Structures are given as structure tokens and as C-alpha cells.
Design the sequence.
């Protein structure tokens, strides 16, 4: 069995030569196909987002023993449409102290990366139409998965600038939290993606999917030993600032977070971007760890090779959308220091350790397990260092601490305290 | 794929190449001018992002996809975000007062240096290939590009191999430099050990009671 697992690591994957559509150069047919692909992907993504909002509200209502939206359309399906219409016709407010240009720009900076990520996700196999063969994927660049990382890094601009340009305190606090959080989790996210790239030997999303074909035991979820998937899920949830990591819009502390000052369709765009990101990131998880559109194809049914991959892809993606909603219903929000501890002290060392293990096993086969003691020893050292660091008071510090640490329960300072309670 | 880049000097570029180049050049220039002219630091940082995106598009146009992705991830996604973070945190997001010069005579010096740089660029453009500044770009560069680099992931493999063999020392030196910078930042940012927070108060309370 172990030998079989080893063989799954050794499969020679498709090197991702790009979309076969461009093999014969550009002509009007090619341009038309690309335009249709872009339009269809955009339309489907918008409809899917509307459905996702309805889905999330319905599922969360069910988990909380409520009914949820049930007025507009059958089962409240058209509720999102009604909400969208309301948002468009609402009065558009511009705060007095806002930086007008950036304030208007920020919602678009949020939406555009969310749309663009979907462009590199392989949705199905290839189709031949006349003389043109093309992939069911808007674009298949050689650095596909890096494009996803780049866009998820860019997405922070929308939140950050929205908070800053509003010219008031709560949005600014929300956006500072958001940018720190996203930057912190990007490292862990990147390193768990690198493990996938190592076994797939390509950065192209289609090649990553092709490397996972021929049965579910070839999925990166199993080939990489489950942990990179768990790390990726945690990091991506934090990156999306979805619950339980939604400190950027913690209602109890920050009113609405970065979008407090927004109303009308500008607020609607933030809302749209958030749910669109949930869908696209579910699709990315499916691509990286669950074989994307791969699945058993019944050849008896005509045309099954074309639509069955799409069906598998949609089913897997919906499953992950459901998991995100489940997270939201089940998990309480983290405190900010817990969030940073999880990101820096646990997730980054763990992903680094797993990356070392995967790389050494790929290089030296079973001799690669000599990396295990190295990882264990460094983990023990790190744990010890953390433990020593957290228990240390200011008096016995070698260098004075940066900032101020609040240890233990907050103390009530008497009003006539000699040094004045400025803490 | 590869030969289109290599033969760029000798053949006329195709129409899509020219369009992409013109569009991204316009984006780069508008962004660069914006960085210099905008009074508000946040607007300047945003213009910088615009320039970085334009350069990334140019990289893709030259089929250096990996470089383009790294450019966006590292520069636009991390470094400028940190700039903005600092600008927002320190509250320097107001228009700078440009009337007071902290450094005397810097403006004439800047004009002189600008003149020298411009003259250098023009001289190079006049005597060599105008895009890269190299005297010729036909043929492989120092034999590093092999047949395997024509496959998409070959580019990354080549880069990694070079980084960990030929340029290992530079790579390690950069890593050491970054660690030193981080330690230096922590040392510079630490507070002077003045008793001002709750822990020292608690110690005093213990003494007095």
C-alpha cells in the first residue's frame, strides 16, 4: 500500500502547455471563443454569487432553527435579486471627510480580484468546436496558481483603502486589522500551495488537476497527507476574512468594520466581492486538493466526457461553500491576539515543517524521513521558546519588550492612582 | 514560444505585441508620474501599484510569467501594502509641506542628476537596441537557456537551479541581510525602559502595601 502511495507521487503529470486554442495563432474564431468564455464565466459567476448569498442565508437559518428568506420567489430564491435592487436604488452617501477618489475606487478594487481568480480555475475538460479545440477555463497561464496567490494578495487593497478613505475611526481600525491579518496568513497560504506545486511539478492549474487524475487516491488531499489541506483551509478562511476570522467587521467592536461608511451599491459591491470570493476560493481548494473536475465518467452516456467533469466540479465546489457556511454557524470569532498567535506561531511553522517533509521525501524517497527528527527537534525548541517568551516579565527581559503586553486579567486602576491610569 | 522573444530584435513585432506594449507603457508612465506628483502619500502609493501592474504586464508580454507573478505577489501584494500600513498607522496621510527644504541644495542637485541619467539613457538608446539597452539580444544569454526552458515550468526550474547553484552566495547573503534588517527594526522600535505601564505600577503597589 505504501508502495502504491509512493507511485502516486511519481506519476508524470501533464506539463501544462497552455490552452490548445492558441496553437495556430490568433484569428477571429479564437478571439470570439475567448470573448464567449469570458462572458459566460462572468455571467455564471454572478448568478452563482446570487445563489450563494441565498444558500448561505438559508443554510444558516436552518442551522439556527429559523426559516430564513421565504418571500421573494419559491423558497426565497429571488431574495438576493430584491436586495440588489434595493441597494441600487438606495441613496448614495459620501462622508464629509472622505477621500472621494479612493472612496469610490475601493469597492471596485475588492470586486475585480474576486472575479479574476475564477479565470484560472479549470471547470471541465476540453471541447472541440469545428477546427478549434479549447479548454473549459477562461485562461490557462503557465503561472496559474501564482496568479491566484497574487490576486488574493491584491484583494486586501479594497478593504484597506475603503477603511482609510472613509475618514473615520472604526473603518480605519477594521482596515488595519484586515491588512495585518491578510499579510500574516499569506505566508502559510503560500507554503501550503508550494507543497501542491512540488508534487504536481507545475504551476499551471490545469496541470495540477491533470496530476490528480485516475482515481481519488491520486488527489493531493491524500498524496500530501491531509495536513496541507487543513493548513490551506485555515489560511484561506483567514485570507477571506470569513468567520471565525472576520475580525475586520466585528459588529460588537467596530460597528461594520471597513464598510461602516458605505451605503447603496458601493456597499453592495463589497458584499458581492465577499461571497464571490467564497465561491472562487472553494473552487481553488477543489482544484488544488480534490482533483478539480476529475471523477469517474460513465462512457455509456453520450457526451458524458463533456458535462460530467463540470458536474463533478460544481458538486465539489458546492460542498466547500457549504463548509464555509458551516464554519460561520459553528465557530465563535477569535480574539485578535489568538488570530495572530495561530497564524505566526502555529500555522507558519507547521506548514514549513510539512513542506520540508514533502520535499525531502520527494527527493530521497523513504530516506527523506530523516527529516522527521529534524522537524520534531525544531518543533520542541520552538514550543519551548514560545513558552519561555510568554511567561517572561519585563524585569528579566534581555532586551526591553516592544510595545506593551497585557498579561493576565485587566486590573482596575483606582482613580487617585499615583501615576495616573493611562494604560 | 521562446524564439519569438529571441528574434524580437530582428523581426518586426506583431500588432498584438505593439498594442499590449503601448497600453502597459501608458499605464506605467501615468503611474510613475502620479508617484512623483501626488501630494498625498496614499495616492502616491496607489500610483506605484499601478506602475507595478504595468511592468507585470510587460513581463508577461515577454513571456516571463513567473517574474510577473512574483512582481505582483511581492511588490504589489506585500511591500506596498506595508507602505500603506505604515502611512495609515503613523497618520502621515496628509499633504506634505513642500515649502520647507530639509536638505539645502537638493533641488539643483536633483536636476543635474536627472540630466546625467537622461543623457545616459539617450546615449544608450542611440547606440544599441532600444528596448533592452543590450547591444544585441539575438541568441541565448550566456548559454543558460536550454531546450527545457521552453516548457512553462522549465522557466521556474531553471530559475531555482541558478538560484541555488550559481547565485547561492548572493541568495544566502540576501537572506542574512533580511534577518539583520528585521533584528535592526526590532531594536530601533523598542521603547526606552521607562516605568510607564501597568506591570511597573503593580510592582510599586506591592512595595507600598
Sequence:
Amino acid at each position: 500500500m505504501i508502495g502504491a502511495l509512493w507511485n502516486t507521487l511519481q506519476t508524470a503529470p501533464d506539463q501544462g502547455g497552455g490552452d490548445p486554442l492558441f496553437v495556430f495563432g490568433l484569428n477571429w474564431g479564437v478571439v470570439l471563443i475567448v470573448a464567449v468564455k469570458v462572458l459566460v464565466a462572468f455571467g455564471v459567476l454572478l448568478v452563482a454569487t446570487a445563489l450563494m448569498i441565498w444558500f448561505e442565508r438559508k443554510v444558516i437559518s436552518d442551522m439556527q432553527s429559523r426559516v430564513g428568506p421565504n418571500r421573494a420567489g419559491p423558497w426565497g430564491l429571488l431574495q438576493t435579486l430584491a436586495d440588489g435592487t434595493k441597494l441600487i436604488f438606495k441613496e448614495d452617501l459620501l462622508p464629509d471627510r472622505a477621500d472621494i477618489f479612493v472612496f469610490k475606487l475601493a469597492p471596485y478594487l475588492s470586486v475585480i480580484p474576486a472575479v479574476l481568480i475564477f479565470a484560472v480555475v479549470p471547470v471541465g475538460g476540453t471541447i472541440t468546436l469545428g477546427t478549434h479545440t479549447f479548454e473549459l477555463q477562461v485562461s490557462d497561464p503557465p503561472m496559474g496558481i501564482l496568479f491566484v496567490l497574487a490576486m488574493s494578495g491584491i484583494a486586501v487593497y479594497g478593504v484597506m483603502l475603503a477603511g482609510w478613505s472613509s475618514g473615520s475611526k472604526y473603518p480605519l481600525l477594521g482596515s488595519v486589522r484586515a491588512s495585518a491579518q491578510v499579510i500574516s496568513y499569506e505566508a502559510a497560504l503560500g507554503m501550503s500551495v508550494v507543497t501542491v506545486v512540488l508534487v504536481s511539478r507545475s504551476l499551471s492549474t490545469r496541470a495540477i488537476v491533470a496530476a490528480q487524475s485516475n482515481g481519488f487516491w491520486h488527489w493531493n488531499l491524500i498524496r500530501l497527507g491531509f495536513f496541507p489541506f487543513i493548513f490551506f483551509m485555515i489560511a484561506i478562511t483567514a485570507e477571506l476574512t470569513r468567520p471565525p476570522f472576520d475580525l475586520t467587521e466585528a459588529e460588537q467592536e467596530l460597528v461594520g468594520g471597513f464598510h461602516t461608511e458605505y451605503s447603496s451599491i458601493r456597499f453592495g459591491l463589497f458584499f458581492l466581492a465577499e461571497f464571490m470570493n467564497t465561491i472562487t476560493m472553494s473552487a481553488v481548494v477543489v482544484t488544488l486538493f480534490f482533483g478539480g473536475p476529475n471523477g469517474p465518467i460513465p462512457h455509456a452516456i453520450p457526451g458524458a466526457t463533456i458535462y460530467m467533469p463540470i458536474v463533478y466540479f460544481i458538486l465539489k465546489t458546492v460542498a466547500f461553500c457549504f463548509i464555509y457556511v458551516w464554519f460561520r454557524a459553528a465557530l465563535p470569532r477569535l480574539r485578535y491576539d489568538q488570530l495572530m498567535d495561530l497564524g505566526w506561531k502555529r500555522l507558519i511553522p507547521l506548514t514549513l515543517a510539512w513542506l520540508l517533509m514533502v520535499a525531502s521525501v520527494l527527493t530521497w524517497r523513504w530516506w527523506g524521513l530523516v527529516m522527521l527528527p529534524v522537524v520534531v527537534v525544531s518543533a520542541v525548541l520552538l514550543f519551548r521558546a514560545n513558552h519561555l517568551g510568554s511567561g517572561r516579565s519585563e524585569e528579566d527581559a534581555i532586551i526591553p519588550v516592544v510595545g506593551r503586553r497585557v498579561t493576565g486579567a485587566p486590573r482596575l486602576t483606582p482613580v487617585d492612582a499615583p501615576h495616573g491610569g493611562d494604560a | 514560444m521562446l524564439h519569438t522573444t529571441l528574434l524580437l530584435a530582428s523581426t518586426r513585432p506583431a500588432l498584438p505585441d505593439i498594442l499590449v506594449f503601448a497600453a502597459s507603457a501608458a499605464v506605467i508612465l501615468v503611474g510613475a508620474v502620479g508617484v512623483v506628483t501626488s501630494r498625498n502619500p496614499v495616492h502616491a502609493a496607489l500610483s506605484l501599484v499601478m506602475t507595478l501592474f504595468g511592468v507585470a504586464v510587460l513581463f508577461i508580454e515577454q513571456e516571463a510569467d513567473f517574474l510577473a507573478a512574483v512582481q505582483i505577489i511581492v511588490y504589489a501584494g506585500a511591500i506596498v501594502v506595508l507602505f500603506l500600513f505604515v502611512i495609515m498607522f503613523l497618520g502621515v496621510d496628509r499633504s506634505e509641506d513642500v515649502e520647507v527644504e530639509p536638505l539645502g541644495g537638493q533641488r539643483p542637485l536633483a536636476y543635474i542628476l536627472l540630466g546625467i541619467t537622461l543623457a545616459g539613457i539617450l546615449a544608450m538608446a542611440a547606440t544599441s537596441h532600444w528596448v533592452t539597452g543590450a547591444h544585441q539580444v539575438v541568441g541565448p544569454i550566456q548559454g543558460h537557456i536550454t531546450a527545457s526552458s521552453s516548457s512553462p515550468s522549465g522557466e521556474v526550474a531553471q530559475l531555482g537551479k541558478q538560484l541555488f547553484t550559481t547565485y547561492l552566495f548572493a541568495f544566502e547573503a540576501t537572506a542574512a541581510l533580511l534577518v539583520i534588517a528585521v533584528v535592526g527594526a526590532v531594536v530601533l522600535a523598542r521603547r526606552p525602559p521607562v516605568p510607564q505601564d501597568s506591570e511597573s505600577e503593580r510592582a510599586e503597589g506591592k512595595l507600598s502595601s
User: Anything to note?
Assistant: Chain A has 15 helices and two strands.
